[in-house]
Amino acid sequence: MSPLELFRRNQKVTMTFLILLAMFAFVVLPTVSEYMRRSGPGMTDPVLAEFNGVSLTASRVNGFTQKHYATVQYLRKLAEETMRRGGTPKVPGFVYDQQSNQIQSVGINGSPSDDMSVRTMQFAAEAQKQGFELDDTSLAIWLEQFTDGTMSEREMFALLRRETNNQMGQYQLYDMLRKQLLSALYFRGASATVARGQFPLQSPLDHWNNFLKLNQKATVNAYGVLVNDYVDETDANPSESDVVTVYEAGKDRYPSDQSPEPGFRRRETASFEYLLGELQAFRDAEVAKLSEEEIKAEYERRKAGGAFQLPPDVVIEPEAPETPAAGETAAEAEMNEAKTPENTSEAAPTAATPPAEMKDEAASEPETPAEKASEEPADDDQEASAEAKAAEQKQVEEFSKELEEAGNLDVEATEETATEDAATEETPDDAPESDDQSSTGRDSSGVRLVAMQSDASTETADASTADEAETDAVEAEETAAEETTAEESTPEPRYRPFEEVRDQIAQTMVDAPAREARDAAIAKARNVMRKYSRARAIYGVGGDDATPAPERPNLKALADELGLTHRKIGPFDPVSLADEPIANSVEESTALTQRGVPFAAMMFGIEGQVIKQELFTPATSVDLETQRTYLSWKTDEKEAYTPELDEVRDEVVAAIRFTQARELAKQAAAAMAESANGGTDLDQLVPEDRKENYYKDLGPFSWLNMVGFGSFTIGNIPELDSIDEDFMKTVFNADGGEHVVAPNGPKRVFYVVKRTSLQPATSDLRAIFSQQSERIIAMFMSDGTAAKVQQGFFDSIDDETGFQQYQLPQ
User: Fold this and answer.
1) For a Cys staple, 660 with which of 127, 172, 234, 401, CB 3.0–4.6 Å?
2) Above pLDDT 90, what percent of the chain?
3) Which portions of the chain have biased composition (kind: Acidic residues) (predicted)?
4) Residue 628: which H helix or E strand, with range?
5) 145 and 89 in contact (C-beta within 8 Å)?
6) Distance between CA atoms of residues 417 and 58, nearest Å
7) How far apart are CA 655 and CA 645, in angstroms?
8) Both ends of the chain: CA-CA distance in Å?
9) At what angle do helices 136-146 and 153-163 cross, to 10 degrees?
């Protein structure tokens, strides 16, 4: 072997070793580190459930849930690729919404969770016991139908490895599909008459009651007795036994302002650090780089293309009104302005003031007797009348001329007929010649047309010819008027001034470069954060002296360099985080879908659906409405826990006192209702300093509102606090005019309520209910009976399999 070949061989070996080392460092070591962290001293793998003698540990259930989630996401990608290639998944249970262009179901259960994982493994085992089986060939056929034959097995499994980061292969996919399909088959067969606990199992009376809840509307007067007003009347030092009892009852319950039950368990908390890229800030930075000439040039370019044009009816007011001349009133100024040449130049000519052209033409022609008479002195009325007649005669002559030039056949025929008649007719020798006659046909026709329109006794043509000529003259007159009006009504286009649209133009000019600059800044910061995250995963935090922990980047300095905003927030739990602006953002890759993953879900996770973000792992989220991009990571976290009594003693005492105050408020509300029913006006019973809690004529509102087929909510009374089913039941079942006491859901307010009206009348409702189309909704409302039947099915399966479920240790 030559030295060159030996060198090349050693080089290949070295490259292979480096590649394997990199894979080990970035793939194997993080997994081993995570395993060692979770399996360190004192860590155990608790059993979550047992059935048929099989123990399901937490790690096994959690692993199944994660694979279930990965399988659902993979099937979504597979379906998208199938449809992109022109196919359609043809497996039972696949649902695609054409209207929203969203995949609703992929053919298997789409809601992974640990509870669902336990049930899936349990039902799949029961299906196999009953003889159901799915071999690899059947699953391959199922996948072929899913892809509609558009993808090969090699392409499908390559996509699987890519989407799951090499965490799943063919064996893991087939195992998950087998269990999911067998479980669904067993569940459907066993609960064919119960559709997920919602199928109605009700009598006709139940249908009538449901109909009333949706269609009957009440109007009420209500006064709210606040529990907080009676806390000071309770014992500030309850007994230790009461304290311990209340603590034990609520120590594992999370507090909720919508529940009357106290809770003391602490939610998981986390602190965050993030960089914010606001698109508007980058736009402003890019606008500052533009020159005024560039913006004006863009304005002229868009203006030439038709932009910024004002509608004809828009009037641009002058910036400042002109000051009238000295001694001139505002009214006189307006009149003088109306008389200016600018305001009169476009006015239509009248009979009294003919256009200059018309006057010139009239002056060049021989004067008629009427014109001569008009030159003689006369009063104003006679002069105006003469001028009007002259203008009218001239206008008719011009129309006659236009008709002749257009080649009007009717006029020519009239001329020929008139000429023949004149040739055969004997003219008396002593007949005087008219001054305005001419030997040409044009003059003759013009005179005849004037005579035809002004004096019927001088007509020489027959009636039909005269009518046709007159019609043509009128049409020509209307056409000329329309053309003149169209020319006058088409003003020159007007545009918005540059100063008004300058900022708008500048912002749109820089939109694309601003987005590029923001994305580039976020990408650069992400690379810095990701590099630290990977180094931290490999070397760990607080390692030995030989391998010190990587240096955490200074995000504040990085933000200043890149034009981003830096913030540190927390600690927050998933509830308190909602008040932060970043909580309005969603995971970047899901931002344009209807199922965008909220920031809180990204950071804290959703059991079985979204895996929570690890510490110092960068995540990008966006708020499309405000055009903000967030690059964040968790800097600290604290798991949920149950506090010791001493830590929450004050909260326990407050809960005891609030419970006691609740009884006092209830008694006060009942006494007030009794007095009102005895004849005392409720207005007089309400304390002066609590008038704001008294509401009159609330409604009308219904017991239930439908928000979608099969979905209902409690009727809306926005003035009252957290109304629930019990409140509605009390109000709608009360006798008319009676005052009743109805608490809200959390029982922090007791309302004294009087129902003042209930509409429509029962007879009208019965008439409506008799129509099947009107009662169909009420027939499909569930009262919980079907859910109880379904729960009975689960209980029977649990008894058969010896199922036991345990809670995770706190």
Assistant:
1) 234
2) 44
3) 412-436, 465-490
4) strand 628-638
5) yes
6) 116
7) 13
8) 67
9) 90
Report how far residue 121's alpha carbon sits from residue 103's, in angstroms, rounded to the nearest whole number.
26
- Residue 154 structure tokens: 């090699």
- Bridge partners, residue 572, by sequence: 270
> Under a CB-based contact definition with an 8 Å cutoff, are residues 628 and 606 in contact?
no
Q: Which tokens belong to 620? A: 């990008």
The angle formed by the CA atoms of residues 423, 427 and 432, to the nearest 5 degrees, is: 125
Q: Give the pair of three-digit tokens for residue 452.
A: 């035809």
- Please state, in angstroms and as integers, the Cα–Cα distance from residue 37 to each residue in 50, 268, 668, following that order: 27, 19, 58
CA distances (Å), origin 626, targets 279, 280, 505, 581? 9, 9, 20, 10
Q: HEC profile for 575-599? A: CHHHHCHHHHCEEHHHCCCCCCCEH
State the chain's maximal CA–CA distance in angstroms: 146
CB atoms within 10 A of CB 682: 20
Which of 396, 383, 395 has the alpha carbon at shortest distance from 359? 395
How many Cβ atoms from other residues are within 10 Å of residue 465's Cβ?
A: 18
Burial of 461 (0-12, 13-18, 19+ CB in 10 A): buried
Radius of gyration of the chain from Cα atoms? 46
Q: Hey, what are 238's tokens?
A: 């309850």
Spatial distance between the Cα atoms of 525 and 402, rounded to a whole number of angstroms: 81
Peptide bond into 571 cis (omega under 30): yes
CA 298, 303, 305, 309 dihedral sign is: positive
Judge contact between 148 and 87, C-beta under 8 A.
yes
Residue 780 DSSP class: T
pLDDT classification of 342: cutoffs 50, 70, 90: very low
Record the tokens describing residue 372, joined without a space: 């001569």
Q: What is the pLDDT of residues 554-577, one digit of tens each?
A: 999 999 999 999 999 999 999 999
What is the DSSP track for 518-536?
HHHHHHHHHHHHHHHHHHH
Residue type, 196: R
Which amino acid is present at 471? Answer: T
Tokens 């669902």 identify what position? 116
What is the C-alpha to C-alpha distance for residues 170 and 159, in angstroms, rounded to an integer?
Answer: 11
Say if CB 465 and CB 410 are below 8 A apart: yes
Residue 476: C-alpha distances to residues 184, 445, 644, 675, 753 (Å):
84, 16, 102, 90, 80
Q: Which residues pair with 633 in a beta bridge?
A: 273
Q: What is the C-alpha to C-alpha distance for residues 613 and 635, in angstroms, rounded to an integer?
A: 11
pLDDT digits (tens, 9 = 90+) for 250-266: 999 999 999 999 999 99
Q: Burial of 590 by CB count in 10 Å (0-12 exposed, 13-18 middle, 19+ buried)? A: middle
SS (H, E, C) 458-519: HCCCCHHHHHHHHHHHHHHHHHHHHHHHHHHCCCCCCECCHHHHHHHHHHHHCHHHHHHHHH
pLDDT of residue 428: 45
What confidence score (pLDDT) does residue 126 get?
86
pLDDT at 42 over 60: no
Question: How far is CA 707 from each of CA 196, 211, 216, 732, 743, rounded to the nearest angstrom?
Answer: 19, 15, 17, 21, 25
| Tokens representing residue 528 in the block | 């810095």
Looking at per-residue pLDDT, the higher value among 798 and 221 belongs to 221
Confidence label for 472 from pLDDT (cuts 50, 70 and 90): low
Contact 186, 127 (CB under 8 A): yes
- Above 90 in pLDDT, residue 594? no
Residue in 649, 746, 657, 750 with CA at minimum distance from that of residue 261 = 746
For residue 805, list its beta bridge partners: 49
Strands 102-106 and 217-226: unpaired
Q: In what order do the strands lie in the sheet with 694-702?
A: 694-702, 217-226, 749-759, 739-743
Amino acid at 574: P
Task: Please name the CATH architecture into which domain 46-199+783-810 falls.
Answer: Orthogonal Bundle (1.10)
Q: Which amino acid is at 371?
A: E
SS3 200: coil
